[in-house]
Amino acid sequence: MESLDLHKITVRELNQFLHKELPGKGVKKLEILNPDGVHSIAAGMDTEVDIDIQGHGGYYVGGMNKHANITVHGNVGWGVAENMMSGTVRVKGFASSAAGASGHGGTLIIEGDTSLRCGISMKGIDIVVGGSIGNFSGFMAQAGRMVICGDAGDGLGDSMYEAVFYVRGNIKSLGADAQIEPMTDADYAAVQELLNRAGFKHDPKEFKRVAGAKKLYNWNADANQEY
Amino acid sequence: MSKKLVLEESAGFNQKVIEYVHRASATGLYEIRGMGAKRQLPSFDDLVFLAGSASRYPLEGYREKCTTTTVLGTRFAKKPIELAIPITVAGMSFGALSGRVKEALGRAATEMGTSTTTGDGGMTPEERQSSKTLVYQCLPSRYGFNPDDLRKADAIELVIGQGAKPGGGGMLLGQKVTKRVAGMRTLPVGVDQRSACRHPDWTGPDDLAIKVAELREITDWEKPIYIKVGATRTFNDVKLAVHAGADVIVVDGMQGGTAATQTVFIEHIGIPTLAALRQAVDALEDMNMRGKVQLIVSGGIRTGADVAKALAMGADAVAIGQGVLLSLGCNSSSYVQNGQHIDATADYNALGTAPGFCHHCQTGKCPVGVTTQDEILEQRLEPLVGAKRLKNYLKTLNMELTTVARACGKSNVHHLEKEDLVALTLEAAAMAKIPLAGTNWIPGVSPF
Question: What CDD domains has UniProt attached to this entry (chain A) (predicted)?
């Protein structure tokens, strides 16, 4: 397996290798050593490859990822897998704010907890969090699914559109226009499928469904403070 | 004998204010409209040039060479942008504008050797194909934002704010959120779309620096990165943008337009372009970054004289939005179909307005087919006709710019300088820090 050591090369050299040289080399798996919280590790990937980051990442690990399967054997800073299009990013530890922000596709798995604004502006990504998520998560979430095995903080799903969240634990409060809805068989199946993808073992029947009430889709003078 | 009717209008509660109160009372919603501030503001009109004289030697107006080449993104980008003229097309979204308009903008800009810019909602194939140089905006909403288009772009503009609505997010009312627009933005068809006002994955200036670095990493440090701010605390914002690693800073003054925003934003938030430009230049000079970080100014730029004054005050280029739309026929009484002018007055009247006064972009019912997504109305703008008109407009501005520069003795428009200008009003003198005409007085700087 190819190893790239961030004690020996810069993150710029790393990313330029990943973008420009890796695609033609036929490498299927590589590891990144000594990440030491560096930002933008493996950002802008456009190649089908398994990447193991052996340690903690900084901001924007796997940012705008396409195709790659990235595993972080540690914690990450803000915006992990932000604007991801496809592939998978798995964080074995904890993630800071804005995990999976504006993601269009692929799967983001966080085995620990995440901080504020997880799944903000998500646009089709699937996010599975083994622990709990912070306040204001799922703000303006447009599409995609988020499974939270722990608790959710204040203002979950504020102004959300068509995304759907499944929460196993407590929800401190819902944001404007977010509501708890009954689970259907399709919801149970979706939760099971996402838990399987993440490798988490929980009973889908323990989850609640949160979705947009769609009352703020068009201007409404009687909802004056919601705008 | 009949009694004489005496009508005395209140200065505070005039007809306009009465109409505002009545409308608010009837609807319970604030007014949303398009275009920019309509109030009188200190502007480039309040400056004039001191051209060649006994002490300054003018260049011959028609024949002597006057360079307009403009290079943007020389600080960090491996591939800076070189434009033939310092006049660019400002960011405007597909959604606010039709695909045909985006095509027309691209065609005209390409023929003039300048750039166009995407907007909220992402990049359309029409504008990418027709634009030789295309700037790709990264906005708070991230609608349609993706790495493939990012790599196709020639530069990236990270938008923090817009002059018409600093502190506010974008807006596109349901009548313009058609199937195609909604698909590009991952939104339900017909929703009254209100964009976020803050970016989802960074907050303060230190985070912004990391975000800029990420965009550079994704694009292998090739593309210039612009940071656009709506004009408010411009001196500080420009310094922070430089700190964050911008190659180019775009400052959009309060006269800047919009396709739809609350009127209260348009008229009451932000500072005039004139004041913002001076603050931006002060900030760059304070950091010794003039010439290293390029400055684009926008917000109410209309004429070649405006462009020349902006450059003389220290801008490297300007960006134009409303002027560009007007050149395509916005607020014209007619539109062109197959070479014939067809009267559109009745359609303006149906919107409750008239040519020359229309700011109804938010309705999507643009009588001349510019700011619409309606399949029938958008046909009123023929891309080739629009491109020809816009090319003419840009050409005229550039000719005015160079003729002014020559008169000031400059063989390069970028050699225009503050010393070429004087102010006609105290307000403009104070805001622009340019002496009042006939004096050496700059209020707050030098004695009368």
Answer: GXGXG
